[in-house]
Amino acid sequence: MSTMDTLMNNEDLVSPGLSACQGCPAELSLRTAFKVLGPKTVLGVPPGCIAGVGVPGWGLKTGMKTPVVMPLLGNSASLMAGVKQAYAKIDPEVHCVVFAGDGATVDSGLQTLSAAAERGENIIYFCYDNEGYMNTGFQKSGTTPHGAHMSTSPFGPYSRGNVGFKKDVPLMLATQDAAYVATLCPSHVQDFVNKVQRATEVKDGLCYLHIMSPCPTGWGVKPDQSIQYARAAVESLYFPLFEYDHGTFTISRPSLRAGKKPRPVSEFIAGQRRFRHLTEEEIQQLQDDVTRKWNLLNKLAS
Ligand code: SF4
Questions:
Q1: Using a 6 Å cutoff on CB, does residue 20 contact ligand 1?
Q2: Which residues contact 21 (CB under 8 A, 6 or more apart)?
Q3: Which of 43, 53, 64, 293 has its CA 20 to 30 A from that of 249?
Q4: For the chain, how many structural domains are there in total?
């Protein structure tokens, strides 16, 4: 089935009335992923934006059309691994999936995610990365980029924004025996669908899919610009698309194309309120970090 057939013909398993902010691509990613995963899926959704917008459901006619479990912020991977083990005896074709934000993944939930990868639990773990704790007041997370103005790392007389650099959890999981790792972006739908499809085929370990998810509210951009920023993240190599499949790294076609003549990172950050205080020197630091990681990825894929 082609990508368009998958998207046109498969049922939308998310009810129409979620309360996400206008232009939120996390909701779009959830809908797209579930069109590929299909109805034989159990969703674990920890506290975060996607739980908060009503995915667990209010009453019987809202939220997901599949079963939903709501873990704590830090135990999504271990809880869904247990659900998967129970389903393995009932119906091994049921996908047990986590859809968690970066806070619940790269900070609070990293220990249980790492342990599930080590044990080879056959769950599919999505992280929608909006680069902060966005539904609780825009606090910094482990994937917040360097220099970003957040409520807990504000720009002001004594601070230039976030001190650290973005934590690279996809590479961490790839070097830690996850069976399949991929980076996805809602601006590149065909690549997105292919990677979710591949995750459904893997039966011998953990699949980790990391989604770039611009947050219009937290990043200070217009709702109709979220896909534009998602595309700029890929085309500047700020967020390169790649796969790690059972030991082999492959750079995905959109990033291979972008790598020939990448857009400067300054184009990705332009217009974002969280970066508007950055100096030329600070922007160059971000650019250097992006270039360093891209070079590393090329070495791993060569
Ligand atoms: S705060 Fe950001 S990530 Fe959360 S629902 Fe709103 S736009 Fe989406």
A1: yes
A2: 215, 216, 217, 223
A3: 43
A4: 1
Q: Please state whether beta strands 159-160 and 180-184 pair in parallel, antiparallel, or not at all (unpaired).
A: unpaired
Identify which of 14, 18, 19, 21 to mutate to test ligand 1's pocket (most ligand atoms within 8 A of the CB): 21
pTM: 0.97
Q: What angle do CA 147, 220, 188 make, to 5 degrees?
A: 90
Q: 3-state DSSP call for residue 149? A: coil
Q: What is the mean pLDDT of residues 208-215?
A: 98
- Judge whether 77 and 125 are in contact, CB under 8 Å: yes
Residue 288 belongs to domain with CATH number: 3.40.50.970
Q: What is the pLDDT of residues 56-74, one digit of tens each?
A: 887 667 789 999 999 999 9
* Residue with more model confidence, 127 or 57: 127
Burial class (CB in 10 A: 0-12, 13-18, 19+), 200: middle
3-state secondary structure 215-249: CHHHHCCCHHHHHHHHHHHHHCCCCCCEEEECCEE
Domain with 13, as residue range(s), is: 3-301
